[in-house]
Design goal:
Blueprint lengths: L6 H22 L1 H9 L3 H33 L1 H25 L3 H30 L3 H28 L10 H25 L18
Amino acid sequence: WGILTSPGLWASAVVQFGTNFVWVFLGNELPTFLQRVYQVPIETRGWMTFWPFFLSLPMLLVGGWWTDWMTKRYGPRLGRSFPLVSTRFVGALAMVACFFLDAPWPIVIALCLFAMANDMGLPAIWAYNLDVGGRNVGLILGWGNMVGNLGAAVSALLLGFVLKRYVDFDAAPTIAQMKAGYGAVFLTCAAVFVLIGIVSLFVDATKKIGVKEPTQG
């Protein structure tokens, strides 16, 4: 009941849903995008797909230090929510940049920045669950992880629907159609990250799950 009635935990779950919804594009669709739009050779596509994942890994350590430093300095409310809010908006800007760029390597660089910002905010989600979960932290983490996995599950379906609005795969699609379709995909991803950036404002690490607030008076 505490899980189902916690606004902060629902906000965290929505953030995880949207994060996975966009992030899974890097592994699922980036190689296909590079081949369809720019005809990048397979070996080069492999390296281009490698860099966003490789460069984002150290950001998990940086993000962990950052959210703990902010929590000690500004308290758990801001220390957990601000890293989420700011990194979601940076990720959205990186996706918007992909819409305007028209060359494979600049787009990959923008996606590297997206991946780095994304992973820099993830420790704040994990720390939030530790803050509010208490002895039930495993259950709390599992709930958010489940909702996040649902985001990854529907990503290909919904982004594929956006792509097909511009590209007729039954005919021979043109490069212009492909660019328009993937441009719409990038803007959709940016919109999702703006949305979860706003929702991140409601992630409140001061409200523990299943603990009744003391009444006054």
